[in-house]
Write a structure and sequence with these properties.
This protein has eleven helices and eight strands. By secondary structure, it is of the alpha+beta class. The longest helix has 23 residues.
């Protein structure tokens, strides 16, 4: 079995060069995550970063794997891989088996306990967007994972969040805030042909289907239901 040094030698790259690529990848991931408000980073972006000066096809996988380990051990982040969901002809969401590498993307997930993260890491300037995302995703979850656009806005308007509001005191442009939830891959917008014309639906996307997020939503919904039941009984 070849050693790590021999493996890199076969790729015509030194350990020092590999470490430099890993550091560049980590910098890119952290700054891009902050700059794009947590939107997923495409694997293609990291591949282009690595292959800018190196042509070995196996090198991006080595660099990304090493970056994952260092992000975890040094920064306390999990670089989680997402598989983009696509719609079949029947309208059912599924993972595409074609161009899988192109569809892959990554997001940074903190491994810190929730209370520690809130106290020392969470940006108070973005906490409101986290709350908005959680509410929107919960509405879609309660609708069975898919809801017409007009129905979603109907529920949000009942909470004082109108799609026509461009100057909300906390969220600013409400429509832009909803679009950011799509860009962050918590939801995806799908147009469906219907007798009355095209209807736009919001569906749960890969980040909302992700295990930990899905469990938090279920817990949140269960708490609301239990609270309402208790209030009705009292």
């Amino acid at each position: 079995m070849a050693s790590a040094g021999e493996y890199l030698s076969q790729m015509d790259i030194s350990e020092e060069e590999k470490d430099k690529l890993v550091a560049e990848a980590i910098r890119y991931i952290i700054f891009k995550t902050h700059q794009s408000s947590g939107c997923p980073i495409k694997r293609e972006e990291l591949t282009q970063l690595v292959t800018k000066n190196y042509r070995n096809r196996g090198l991006p996988a080595v660099v990304i794997d090493e970056a994952k380990k260092k992000l975890s051990s040094i920064f306390g982040y999990e670089l989680r891989e997402l598989q983009r969901t696509r719609l079949s002809s029947t309208g059912q969401a599924h993972s595409s088996q074609q161009n899988v590498a192109d569809a892959k993307s990554y997001v940074l997930i903190s491994k810190l306990p929730a209370d520690i993260y809130r106290r020392y890491v969470e940006d108070v300037n973005t906490a409101h967007m986290t709350g908005f995302t959680f509410v929107v995703v919960s509405i879609v979850h309660l609708a069975g994972g898919k809801i017409p656009e007009e129905s979603l806005w109907h529920h949000l308007r009942r909470m004082g969040l109108s799609e026509s509001d461009e100057n909300h005191p906390v969220l600013g442009n409400i429509k832009h805030a909803a679009e950011l939830v799509v860009q962050q891959r918590y939801l995806q917008k799908v147009k469906v042909n219907a007798p009355e014309g095209n209807i736009t639906f919001y569906e749960l996307a890969e980040r909302a289907i992700d295990g930990p997020v899905s469990e938090k939503i279920k817990e949140y919904v269960a708490q609301i239901v239990n609270t309402n039941v208790t209030a009705a009984d009292s």
